[in-house]
Structures are given as structure tokens and as C-alpha cells.
Give the backbone structure.
Amino acid sequence: MAGFIFVLFAQLSRFMMKSPGLSPRAFCKDEMPPQKKISVILADDHSLVRRGLVALLSLSKDVEVIAEVGDGRAAVDLTLRLKPDVVMMDLSMPNLNGFEAIRQIKKCAPSTRILVLSAYDNEEYVHQTIRGGADGYMLKSTSPEELNEAIKTVRSGKPYFSPSVLRFAENAKVNRPLDEAASNATMLSKLTAREREILQLIAEARSHQQIAEMLHISVRTVDTHRNNIIQKLGLHDTASLVTYAIKSGIVIIHR
């Protein structure tokens, strides 16, 4: 992640010098007519990444960042309140991961477009985001010009995928034999949205008391949800829940 942050700020510096079409001077009121910008919420758990993206997108005549958040639950709450055109979503976030945040946003605010911005060119991650309703998937190694184009494309209602993950998106549209990843996704679909939230929090080593306080429910209710999760997934204990959460992408281990 530190490498990505360095690259992001290096790209920003080069972009400002090389791209007069997207320089601050190009946005003076006497040089272009006023137009409604695409409203964007940034969701990423690294504050430096968010700062870099805000600085980068501030140079665009097409995009306006209206809010930034560091976890999936805040992304869902702000999306429902602010109703942005586009949410740029990281996948690995605390409290509520990007996969679940995508599902909840698309259920409650289907007109909002979701563009995943991830460090992972992982086929199953791409498939999960598509199943959840994401409109595009970009890698964090993308160029500033491509990122700006991706935001405009998904806002127009068209999908946009980084070239290196495009084949994964195309594969997701055809029927494939049931493999381990697909089997995990099928099992995960048995859980309610609340159960998926609690599964992630358990896998993040939160105590039942902490989970109860975060979700404003009783400890007994947390226990009930945990037992239901174990029963639905055919597991036996907390250790097996954590293993399942990692394999299914509910929590992502940074390497």
C-alpha cells in the first residue's frame, strides 16, 4: 500500500505538469462554461490514498468529490444521505467491506453508480463485485486520465473495467462449472445482510460486546446471529468462521 501511495502522488505531480487540459488554469470561469460536475464519494480506508485521489480529481472539469469515508458502513450511510452520482469503492475496509457495501448501496440507491478502485486484480473479487451490482472495476495502478474516463463512463450507464481485469468481467457473464470460489459465493448468499456484517466483524476479532455496541443491538442478538451463521454455513466454531471469511473475501489479508 505504501508503494501505491507513492505512485499516486508521483502520478499527480506528473499529471499536473503534463496535462494542461486538466490544469487549474483550464478551469477558470472565463475559459469554460459552467456545467454540472459528476458528484463522487470516495471510500477507502487509507487516508493518504483518499487525500491523493481528492487532489487528483480536483483537477478534473468533470468530477467533484463531495465526501470521503474510511469504511463501508459510512459509505452506505453517506450515499443514502447525499445521493452521489458515483461511489468510488475500495474492497478491503473495516466494519463493512466493499463487497457488502456495494450490495447494500445497490439495493437502496440503485441509480448510484459504483466504480471499484482496488489493488487486487483477482478474478473472484471482480466476479463478486459484478454480482453485487458494481458498474466498473479499476486497479489502483491506473492512470489519472483513465480514472477520469472511467468515472464519466459509469456515470453514463456503461460499464468500465481496467484492461487487465476485463477478461474476468467477461468470464463472469458466462456460465462456468461450480468451483470453490463459486461455491463460497453460493453459501454466502444464504446469509442475511446483517449476518454478513457480523461475520466480518467476528473475523476482524471484534468481541461480541464490541459488535453489539457498533450495531446497536444486544449481545444476545449477536450470539443468535453467530449461531445462525454457523448453522447456515455448516461450520463449527469461530476459527472456522474466520477461515471462511478469508476464503470468501469478506476480509482481505494484505500481503
The radius of gyration is 19 Å.
